[in-house]
């Protein structure tokens, strides 16, 4: 008798589904969270042509747990904040951490908190985004070392905004609105608004009413045109719409275009002309720690084995409670004191009023269409 036909072998999972399955297992995620990660990675693969690989995601999970010392809960939070962080090469993550430690001067705990809270920012290029932004704050704004550290810790997203957006907004705020450095840094909402569409026309409209000084702080609050007319200018929205229709051909608009926008590309050349490690501080301004210890938490960044060290540069013997198991990457919770404190400054950071501008910047070179999720089996 002919034997029964064997059932066909199960269809292998795609790399995307393998990654989602791995992350779900390692981080004990629910179905809704796994679906969210699946959708985000599918978008990156389809629209930005990024490779989704099980090996790459495994390396990232290991690095977050072993090299950065994140707890299981912190890794979960970082990935849920921005699933594409799984696609960032580990060397890039370590290079950005190293930049924060000994180019900016942040401590390890603050870098860990930044990685958890601001995972989307770690998906941006170091040489084309991070370092030009840091040069802007140091060279154009004139922040000292202490001010730079405080500013990056307080408003990480603004600190690493696209310098092509930062520079015109800074110039308009300081040269047209006559705001001081202290005022601008205390009103960082100025960096979430477009000069052409929001700041300039609204400022000049208030000036035509003689109210630009008394209502400057409210001018910086993100809102639509109708809200601005009613709440800030206190005029009928139709009046502002009529004035706005004439604005592009006005002398003020032409001057703003020349000063803030056209000249900006010349001013920015010296901010982005080099891409190497930053030398923000003169030799006369020595670092707070010996140079050989700066970035010591990620010692061996460029090829040698990564060894955790303390503030004095002494190697720390890894604790079994702190290590992620090699076979399945399952993290032991371990004693609470073995884990770096979360100590989050703002709680889980959602994209707030600056989200639209930040997403617009990411889409400039790579337009993103509406996503089609991969069919679930």
From TrEMBL:
Residues 318-330, 353-377 have a biased composition (Acidic residues). The keyword Ubl conjugation does not apply. Transmembrane segments: none annotated. It comes from the Eukaryota. Keywords: Transit peptide. InterPro entries: MTERF (IPR003690), MTERF_sf (IPR038538). Residues 314-377 are annotated as: Disordered. This is Uncharacterized protein. PANTHER family: CGI-12 PROTEIN-RELATED, TRANSCRIPTION TERMINATION FACTOR 3, MITOCHONDRIAL. It comes from Zooxanthella nutricula.
């Amino acid at each position: 008798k002919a034997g029964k036909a064997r059932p066909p072998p199960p269809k292998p999972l795609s790399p995307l589904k393998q990654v989602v399955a791995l992350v779900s297992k390692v981080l004990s995620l629910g179905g809704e969270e796994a679906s969210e990660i699946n959708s985000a990675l599918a978008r990156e693969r389809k629209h930005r042509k990024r490779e989704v690989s099980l090996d790459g995601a495994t390396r990232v999970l290991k690095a977050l747990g072993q090299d950065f010392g994140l707890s299981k809960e912190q890794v979960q939070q970082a990935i849920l904040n921005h699933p594409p962080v799984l696609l960032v090469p580990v060397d890039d993550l370590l290079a950005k951490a190293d930049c924060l430690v000994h180019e900016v001067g942040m401590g390890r705990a603050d870098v860990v908190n930044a990685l958890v809270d601001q995972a989307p920012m770690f998906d941006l290029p170091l040489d084309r985004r991070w370092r030009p932004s840091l040069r802007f704050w140091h060279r154009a704004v004139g922040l000292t070392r202490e001010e730079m550290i405080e500013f990056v810790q307080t408003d990480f997203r603004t600190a690493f905004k696209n310098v092509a957006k930062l520079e015109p907004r800074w110039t308009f705020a300081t040269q047209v609105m006559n705001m001081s450095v202290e005022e601008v840094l205390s009103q960082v909402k100025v960096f979430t608004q477009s000069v052409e569409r929001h700041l300039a026309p609204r400022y000049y409209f208030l000036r035509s009413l003689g109210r630009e000084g008394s209502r400057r702080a409210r001018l910086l609050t993100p809102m639509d045109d109708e809200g601005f007319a009613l709440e800030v200018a206190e005029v009928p929205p139709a009046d502002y719409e009529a004035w706005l229709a004439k604005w592009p051909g006005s002398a003020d608009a032409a001057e703003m275009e020349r000063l803030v926008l056209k000249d900006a590309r010349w001013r920015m050349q010296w901010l982005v002309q080099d891409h190497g490690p930053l030398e923000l501080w003169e030799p006369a301004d020595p670092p707070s720690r010996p140079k050989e210890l700066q970035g010591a938490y990620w010692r061996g960044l460029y090829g040698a084995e990564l060894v955790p060290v303390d503030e004095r540069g002494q190697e720390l013997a890894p604790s079994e409670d702190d290590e992620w198991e090699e076979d399945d990457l399952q993290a032991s919770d371990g004693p609470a004191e073995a884990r770096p404190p979360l100590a989050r400054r703002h709680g889980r950071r959602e994209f707030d009023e600056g989200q639209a501008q930040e997403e617009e910047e990411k889409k400039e070179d790579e337009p993103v269409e509406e996503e089609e999720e991969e069919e679930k089996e």
